[in-house]
Predict the structure.
Amino acid sequence: MNRIDQTFLNLAAANRKALVAFLTAGDPDFDASLAILRAACAAGVDVLELGVPFSDPTCDGPVIQMASERALKAGMSLSRTLRLAAELRKTVETPIVLFSYYNPFFKYGLERLAREVAQAGIDGLLVVDLPPEEAGPLTAALAGKDIHLIRLAAPTSRPERIRMLAEGAGGFLYLISRTGVTGTGGLDYAEVARHAAAVKAVCPHPVCIGFGVSSAADTRALAPLADGVIVGSALVRLIEQAPADADLPALVAAKLNELRQGLDG
């Protein structure tokens, strides 16, 4: 069974919600990133979203844009991201989702990508700017491999669109909590609750809420609304703002512990 599916089954049996963490691969460099990712998994992350550094991350706010810039300057690429995931998989069983825009995947070659993703022990792909209407070639490349194609739903997505997004996808549905880019603005809990209930009523997959989640108060408020929460910019910001001699793995682990306490509370 795919690690993502097994994780959500285990969490449901324990009446717990998933903590999904996004971190940019190679931020601030390959070795430091590997140490941070290992610490995040040890701190109790249920699903790890590993972001492929990209020069034009239009969905992301300034925090993750700068993380991509740091990683690219450090020599990161899609191939090195796959190497990083493979190295991480040697020591952890946490499900790994490769998070990217479509251009790096398309340029890399979809058949090659699917083969190397499977070899690296990656469990899912999340392609931010690939609508289901255009996903046929990637879906075909993944055929026969136990790799989920995870999709995103906007706060404006209607039930019929949610059903379409769920078809041919798997793992979980990434429910965007509000309009805008990552890491900006606040959350209207009541509005998120309304939309999450409508989405869960028609989606056969677990639903996880992301965008704007930054504190234990957020995870505590969102936990009853979905099957998990997704945190990205709040973690990446720690790397950006840390002093040069900071213990980055410990900083990230401490923040994840705080978020987990809110989620479990």
